[in-house]
Amino acid sequence: MTLDEIKALVRTVPDFPKPGILFRDVTTLIGHGRGFAATITHLAQRTEAIGAQAIAGMEARGFIFGAAVASQLGLPFVPVRKPGKLPVPVLAMDYALEYGTDTLEVDPDGVADGKEVVVIDDLIATGGTAVAAVELLRQAGASVGHALFVIDLPDIGGADRLRGAKVNVDALIDFPGD
After folding, report:
1. Residue 124 has pLDDT above 90, yes or no
2. Which residues participate in catalysis according to the annotation?
């Protein structure tokens, strides 16, 4: 499938989670077998070209896309979790949200020192979660120089924020003006 065909599978939900927001919902893409498979193939091709040695994905939709790419390429998958989900001592990082803070955690033994880890997620908007994940993975010993997304909302500025953290950013599709 082409990237335009994949883009057509993303549902737009107006006024969610609040009035004036156009929410880009990937559940319709994930629910389309051929579209989901094509998305994973596109992401895997770009990941392989980077020379990734492992894939990391943020809970929850980053697990869906990242684990599928890791499986297709035969690479390890590193889950970046919400607090309290890992049964071992963790590295944790708090980060700012629009209204408050949140925390990400990673198993420090889940990342081999110096491995090239590519971060994969469904969407980049403000970049807060992605930047926190990159910093946390680097703290765990990973080399993180690339992040791949299914969707970029370029006018929100998250990709630029991530580039400011010295990460190359790529997305399969974008929705300008959101």
Report:
1. yes
2. 61, 98
Alpha helices by DSSP H, listed for the chain, are: 3-8, 27-30, 33-50, 61-73, 128-139, 158-164
> Percentage of the chain with pLDDT > 70?
98
Residue type, 81: R
User: How confident is the model over 104-126, as a mean pLDDT?
Assistant: 95
Tokens encoding 68: 């599928």
Distance separating alpha carbons of residues 88 and 84, to the nearest angstrom? 10
- CATH number for the domain spanning 128: value is 3.40.50.2020
Predicted structure pTM score: 0.95
Q: Is the pLDDT of residue 178 over 70?
A: no
Number of domains, the chain = 1
Reference 80, options 96, 102, 50; nearest CA is 102
Q: Is 16 helix (H, G, I), strand (E, B) or coil?
A: coil
pLDDT of residue 105: 97
Are 137 and 119 within 8 A, CB to CB? yes
Q: What are the CA-CA distances from residue 50 to residues 15, 45, 60, 97 (Å)?
A: 37, 9, 24, 30
Distance between CA 121 and CA 63 in Å, rounded?
A: 8
**Does residue 85 lie within any of the structural domains?**
yes
